[in-house]
Amino acid sequence: MAPTRRPNDGLLARVNFPLYAVEMLTSRHVLVAGGGGSSKTGVANGFEIYEIYHNGSRFVAEEVIRHETGPSVVMNFAVKNDGRRSFIVAGQEAHCQLYYVNPRVVSMTDGEEAGEKKTTGRTVRLSENGIRRRHNSVNNPSGVEEVKANGVAGDHNDVNANLKRIEFDIKPGDSIQTDFLTNEPIQRVVRISPDGKLMATGGTDGYIRIWSFPKMGKSSEIEAHSKELDDIDFSPDSKHLVSIAKDGQGIVWDVKSQQKLFQLSWNPPDGAKYLFKRCRYAVSEGKQNKSRLFTISNPLGKVGKQRGYLQQWNCEDGRLINCVGIDESLSSMTVRDDGRFIAVGTMFTGSVSIYIAFSLQRVLHIPNAHSMFVTGLVFLPITNQEGPPISSSSEAAVLSISVDNRVCIHSLQYRHTLPAWVAIVLIIVILFLAFMLCSYLGI
Description:
The longest helix is centred in the last third of the chain and has 22 residues, at 420-441. The protein has one helix and 30 strands. The protein has a four-stranded antiparallel β-sheet with strand order 1-30-29-28, with no helix packed on it. It has a four-stranded antiparallel β-sheet with strand order 2-3-4-5, with no helix packed on it. The protein has a four-stranded antiparallel β-sheet with strand order 6-7-8-11, with no helix packed on it. It has one domain (10-426): 7 Propeller (Methylamine Dehydrogenase, Chain H). By secondary structure, the chain is mostly beta strands. It starts with 9 loop residues before the first strand and ends with a helix. 42% of the residues are buried. Helices cover 5% and strands 48% of the residues. A hairpin with an 8-residue loop joins strand 21 (287-299) and strand 22 (308-313). This is Prolactin regulatory element-binding protein.
């Protein structure tokens, strides 16, 4: 049985708008996005950036910056770093909006900083235009975090530390229309290729459009599906692209020729009709030149806690390799950057589970992590090149978001296994004792 949540895992932050998308901006900064839409409900639309660190006993998140996007809700986005700055491409109705994210190191002296203002019980930092930068936390009641010169969170008790931290300036760039359905066009998904040269978008008109990046000049268009797309993803080598849609098809494409390579096909139980919900490529663990493909599927037209499936596919021919059933419909999926773990979120109970990628064995289950369906998941990275990963006692940690406005974290503790030599010794001892017992009984 998979272990359940650690008592001190759970809520990291609460945002005052529904959340639909989440990605890691750097190795220790997470970006979440969403909003209330264009209706005049008073619910904002935009992004929030949080810095995450481990204080020795638990994960803590500190707000860094909030950027509002006016009347346009952010339903999906992708992030790419070029070493100097980050790019965000965000789906806002039928358009894809480019944002430039420029990091800057801010120094503090004796607790003072330009633009800092004192309020009751906390310190709030403001940029030149008055944007709120950082909240206080339970573990940091002053609201001031000490960060070493490289931007990594330092010891809060080290009064001699050089006080520096990373902040971000978000500036909008070009906006392009990516979906052209006659009635209410909407971009449903956007991905940036791992090599950073291409961007792919999909929406309600069923087309995949591939754009150059970061200039976002259209290079090709694929009439991929008869109904709206639900998800797309690039392979780790940027040569292939997988797409799934509400027409029930999962198709792998050659990016260069835009030709269909093969279609994902399986025989669902009891002849039921299933639709793919999410798709993700992952590197094969320890084999950077090979990849694996994962999907989640839900039954069509069924209401209630119907059985969903997590699936692994052969990337050469689209053959189903492994498949595990899950006791309710699934809403989201992510794969860790080293390809070792998969996390899935559920539709009805808001639960989160972590699986071993190669075997699809569940190793952690967090029931009712959210009060509503899980809209997004992302693992804390371990191979990120934009900075050192967050140090903790966890083997893996995944962030989850939902339309319940909450950002949560769930960590898998290191699993204790016996060394091979200990197992061999135990087997020998057990055999010896069995032999002695048999001799004593005269068997």
